[in-house]
Amino acid sequence: MEITQQCVVALTWTLKDTLGETLDVLDEPVEFLVGGNDLLPVLEAALQGYSAGSSLQLQIEPEQAFGDFKDQLLFLEPRHLFPGDLQEGLTMEGSALPEGCHPDAPRDTLYTITDIYPDHVVLDGNHPLAGIAIRITMKVESVREATDEEVGRGSCGTGFFNLQVASDTQAPDGFLH
Description:
This protein is mainly β. The chain contains two helices and eight strands, in the order E-E-H-E-E-E-E-E-E-H.
């Protein structure tokens, strides 16, 4: 079966930056809905017409992936506003920012705690791969028809490339996987 819109593709991949540093490796096949919200549009377009066993390599520029890094999404917040057990690398919904945080910090953004200092915490609302050109080597492990449920959801539940603020029915996605 060839990859078309509204099918499910199982992929393995290696993501690297343009300097060749490995950013992510997906050794075990994971299913994604093509034509839904699981993959970047540039990946979906590149996969069209391929079938199981195919391999392809792409370079994806920041504007095709996670956008440019935006300094205006960095916030230096007072340390005393946050719990004592706060750790670097944790993510926090903007809607859950403590009272007293910068009023211009978008509340519909997912923030990563990138640095913790004695008096301040650095919150970064950029995607972890913002501003980075990505080289991806993918292998199509399998292709199948999507179920009605998957099409209705717009996802196989594995949107690795999306960081979203949780709604009442959806947990926030993690970084890649």
